[in-house]
Every structure is written in structure tokens, then in C-alpha cells.
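hi!! sorry for the late reply, been swamped w classes. u asked for the two structures so here they r. pasted raw, havent cleaned anything up. first the sequence of the first protein and right below it the C-alpha cells
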Amino acid sequence: MKRTLHYLMVFLISMVPLIEIRGAMPYAVGFELPLVPSIIVAVVGNMLPVPFIFLFARKVLVWGKDKKVIGKFFTWCLEKGEKGGQKLEAKAGKGLYWALFLFVGIPLPGTGAWTGTLAASILNMDFKKSTLAVVGGVLLAGAIMLLGSLGVFGAINLVK
């Protein structure tokens, strides 16, 4: 029963914006949960919000841009996202989805499935391709965080 609660925590932690799988994997390792089920639970939890963010984020921002209290902020978000997206598209070209994959996959503050999916939504990127890039990025971030949580990177540093 206790293990079930820990898996639920892994699932919920992986759904939290900005924490996501980057916090779920260290939690799973810290509580000595089996790795394969932990990875599956964390990836599912991290990916669950992705379709909703992709399909509704831009619509909510467009809806709110002419509202009294939130209009300026929503307009700023749209303009900032579109300008940034145009620059990214110009630099990345056909590699835009690889850029999204790396953005989500390299576990730094402010990157992740939520932010990457929001950017893809604002840029009107292809749903299927961007979702695949985000899934790949989540798997990469999960692998990096798992290795870090297991102390692999510290062990490499000791070998010097």
C-alpha cells in the first residue's frame, strides 16, 4: 500500500509545471522504487497535460487578449511567443522539432514539457510532430535525471 502512494507522488510530481520529471525521478530513486515502473509513471504523468496545453493555450491567450484585467499580459505573451518563435524558426529551420526536443530534454530551470508545449502551441507547430518531440524530450530529461539521481555523474567525476 505504501509503495502505491509513492507511485502516486511520482505521478503527481511529474505533472507539476517546472518540476515535472526532473523532480519525479529523484523522488523515485530516493524512496528506492523500482526504476522501470517509476519511469513509466513519471512519463505518463508528465505527458498527461501536454495535449490540453497544446490545444487550448493559444486559444485562451487569444480569448483573453482583449479582456480588461488580463489583456495586456495575454497580448504580451502572444507577441513574445510569436517573435521568439519566428527567430527560432529562422535559426532552426527544418530542425525546429529537434530544437523542441532538446529544449524539453535538457533539464534546466524553465524548460520542460509544459514550456515546450506552450511554445509549440503559440508557434502553431504541428500537433503530432511537436508531441513526439516533447515525448522524446521527456524521455531524455528522465534518463538524465535518473542517472544523476543514481550518482552516475558524480562517479564519473571521481574517475578523473
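now the second protein. again sequence first, C-alpha cells right under
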Amino acid sequence: MYTATAQRPTAFGITEFGAQVSPRVATTSAQSTSPRLKITRRGRLVLGTLVAVPLVIGAVAVGMNAGGAVANSSSSHTSFDYETIASGETLWHLAETVAPTADPRDVIADIMRLNGLETASVVPGQRIAIPTQYS
């Protein structure tokens, strides 16, 4: 049997000479095989969650968009009174004119909501719809 000497580290970092290594051990250590991947139960749970969460979010998003696109066959027809903004006039002035007994802040909020205004600034000549409760 063929034997070879090799260096082997000891516990204190000092190498020990003269260790006997058989050729059979040397060939099996040179032929390393990659280990199979084993996924534990916890790993399968985490992997399944990582895959399922985006799918659920996508399904909810699609469901919300589809629900908002439903057409209504009955049309509600509501007519509003319109006021045209004069030069120098503000929504505050308009609110005091159309509802003198109501709080102008509430009237302005209702006018902005009805007309889709993001700010309370208006320009001369702009037509503003007045909510029906103030007409």
C-alpha cells in the first residue's frame, strides 16, 4: 500500500509532520460532490409566502379596478345653479352671497367639492356650480 506524508494542523496551529494519508482517502476528498438542497418546513413556508403575497396584492388591485369600471344604466340628472365670478370676487364673497346665514367655510368646502377645485382661488369669468342646498 502506498502512503504519503502530509502536514496536518494541530489544535495550536503547529503542523505535525509525518501523518500517514492513504491514497483512497486522497482520491475521495478530491472528488467532491455537491450536496442536495434540503428545504425545511419553515423554509417552504417562507418561500410560499414570498410567492403568494405579490399574487394576492395583484389580485386585489385588479379586483378594485374592475369594480370601479361598472357602468350604471340609470342616469341621475341634477341641475345646479351657476354663478359667474366677477372681477375681485372670491369664494368667500360668493359663499356669503348664496348662503348668508350659513358658515362661509362650510359653504366654500361644499362649492370646492362640487366643482372639483383643489384650491379656493378663482378667476374672473369662471362659472361655479352652487350646491342645491344653498340655491
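hope this helps!! also noticed smth abt the second:
The mean pLDDT is 78.
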